[in-house]
Amino acid sequence: ISAYADSTKAAGDTTSVSVYFRDMNSGKWIGIDQDAIYDPSSMLKVAVMMGYLNDADRDPTVLLKKLPYTASQNIGQYYKPANPLKTGTYTVWDLIQAMIIDSDNNALNALYDNNRQSFIDVLKELQIPAPASTSTTDFMSPKTYSTIFRTLYSATYLSPAISERTLQLLTYTDFKKGLVAGLPADTVVAHKFGEHTITTEDGNTVISRQLHDCGIVYYPAHPYFLCVMTRGKDFPKLESVISHISDITYQKIKSGVQ
Asked: What are the φ/ψ torsions at residue 108 (nearest 5 degrees)?
């Protein structure tokens, strides 16, 4: 994988590639520039969900509360929701599903505006650093982000039942152009992607793009966590890099297990 990552940089397809792999059974891990920091962007929606579900563990009615949702063009999203909600009122659970499955930023805004503290509490409890300021973009590494999925898998923050429910929802994530694209069609993956674009002030020229996809691949009897974070200028090229690394990893696991 290291040689492949270097080749993508040499070809100009990426400017940086970071990978973190962890065997979910043994805890053994390996990484490539795994401590480099990026903008996690939509991947932090998982922590927002965890905050709400932690509250719901004590009071299930939390998920039934209705919140206002304002539809917009999801400005800033290259990968727009396939099934955007219409302006109206939705339950917290409906909004969580839209936020995770379709990565709907408007659903995120409704949930975050209603309860920011639970999200902040999740980061503190898991000892995940928050951005230093509102202008900070790059602050999360693949290795650090793995804490979220490791906590869900081991059910050490949420209850076992709620952790399982959370991971199950993450298997419905609509994004299929990263990790999933490098795996056999029947492979179950609980994952979340994130994207970030920096443009010139007029918005007409792309300076840099980031695309990440991280999650648990449920290889039979040998589940593993894989997080690939990339930086470049072209999303389709970054998609290809992530899916290729996913394929390389899967084939290595397959040959090792057999």
From this structure: -60, -45
Each residue's pLDDT tens digit, 181-198: 999 999 999 999 999 999
Q: What backbone torsions phi and psi does residue 220 show, to the nearest 5 degrees?
A: -50, 120
CA separation for the pair 173, 157 (Å, rounded): 22
pLDDT tens readout for residues 28-51? 999 999 999 999 999 999 999 999
Burial-class residue 52 by CB neighbours within 10 Å (0-12, 13-18, 19+): buried
Q: How far apart, in whole angstroms, are the C-alpha atoms of residue 170 and residue 150?
A: 14
Whole-angstrom distance, CA of residue 257 vs CA of residue 19: 21
List C-alpha distances in Å: 242 to 51, 195, 232: 28, 13, 12
> What is the spatial distance between Cα 46 and Cα 140, in angstroms, rounded to a whole number?
14
Residue type, 109: N
d(CA 66, CA 73): 22
Confidence of residue 74 (pLDDT cuts 50, 70, 90): low
Residue pair 219/253 in contact (Cβ under 8 Å)? The answer is: yes
Cβ neighbours, 10 Å, residue 169: 19
